[in-house]
Amino acid sequence: MIELKSSREIQIIKESGKILQEVFKTLRPMIREKVTGIELDQAAEKVIRESGAQPSFKGYRGYPASICVSLNEEVVHGIPGTQPLFNGDIVSIDVGVKWNGFHTDAARTWAVGAVDDRRKKLIATAKDSFDVALSKIKVGWRIGDLSEAIQKYVESQGFQVVRDYAGHGIGRELHEDPQVPNYGKAGRGAKIEPGLVIAIEPMVTEGSYAVETLSNGWTVVTKDRKCASHYENTVAFTEGGFINITKDEATE
Ligand code: MF3
Ligand code: CO
């Protein structure tokens, strides 16, 4: 069941998103050679807790950290570890914030130092697919229209979209209805209407979209071990259009 949010609730979700933006502002300049996932995780948790909020992911189904750090062939749900970043890596950081009972969820993929053009394009494609889909949204759209727009854009760039994981409704729970797949058919799925709040999160692969989970039970990697990128924002739909709750020009 989809829980539509009131404008008062969307106000709180905006505050939650502001804290999440602060996390990215702190992490962005830390992205360079030698920094470890654990250091990024600790910095993120500090910002969240000092804001009086909680990290949504910590303890979620037993997840052990405050953020996800997924490198190169890791698609999502990488557990921050002692492995340092290297020049040429791409790193995806996924953050969830719970503030006043409401979650926000966002992810960015960033280059570590100088990365090759193909990796740059892979990073840009996840973000651009999100932007293209959102910019096309019209009154009366359904989730399937969003899904198809993301898939079409990604495939037009020569990449693929992951099927096994999807975006989701978000609010009092981190994951709510509806599911927001990154592939599909226009005209299908729930109506996009005022009060709908969803996390839209394209996951894009350089090679095949097939993924598997490592033996730690969390880290999702591409089966062919080619690179993947991930971009996510929490978006609230209103009478007037939509609010991209977690977008922040400074840390795109
Ligand atoms: N953005 C991720 C998702 O929606 C956040 C979940 S990570 C978890 O799946 F570790 F908390 F599971
Ligand atoms: Co999410």
Question: Describe it for me?
Answer:
The protein has 252 residues and is α+β, with helices and mostly antiparallel strands. Helix content is 27%, strand content 26%. Strand 11 (211-213) and strand 12 form a beta hairpin. The longest helix is centred in the first third of the chain and has 21 residues, at 7-27. It is globular. The protein starts with 6 loop residues before the first helix and ends in an 8-residue tail after the last strand. The mean pLDDT is 97.
Outline:
By secondary structure, the chain is of the alpha+beta class. The chain has helices at 7-27, 37-50, 117-136, 143-156; strands at residues 54-55, 67-71, 74-76, 90-99, 102-111, 160-161, 167-169, 176-180, 197-200, 203-205, 211-213, 220-222, 228-230, 233-238, 241-244.
